[in-house]
Specification:
Elements: H1 3-9, H2 23-48, E1 79-85, E2 88-94
Antiparallel strand pairs: 1-2
């Protein structure tokens, strides 16, 4: 269901229209519009950054870059195990011994 259909059903004023004859075409055109907005926002962000500046985000916690946590040793294939905790049993993927 396209957002235009939802807006009409909720009686939202000033929503506007989305081109397309079918619900799928309206949804597809809305998704394309969202991509256009994302590209425009990225271009604006690039134009507002001082020359030579590099955008950096927060880094994950842990010793392994990109994932956080402890890196696996890789000595054995991953297995599913049941661990007991204060809230009862839970499943965990164990990658090494």
């Amino acid at each position: 269901m396209s957002l235009m259909t939802v807006a009409k059903a909720l009686d939202l004023e000033n929503w506007g229209t989305i081109d397309g004859v079918t619900q799928f075409e309206q949804w597809e055109n809305f998704e394309k519009k969202k991509l256009e907005f994302a590209v425009q926002a990225q271009q604006l962000q690039g134009s507002l950054m001082p020359q030579g500046a590099v955008a950096t985000g927060p880094t994950p916690a842990g010793s392994q870059t990109g994932t956080g946590g402890r890196p696996p040793k890789g000595n054995s294939p991953p297995t599913a195990k049941v661990k007991n905790g204060p809230n009862g049993p839970r499943t965990a993927i164990v990658e090494s011994k």
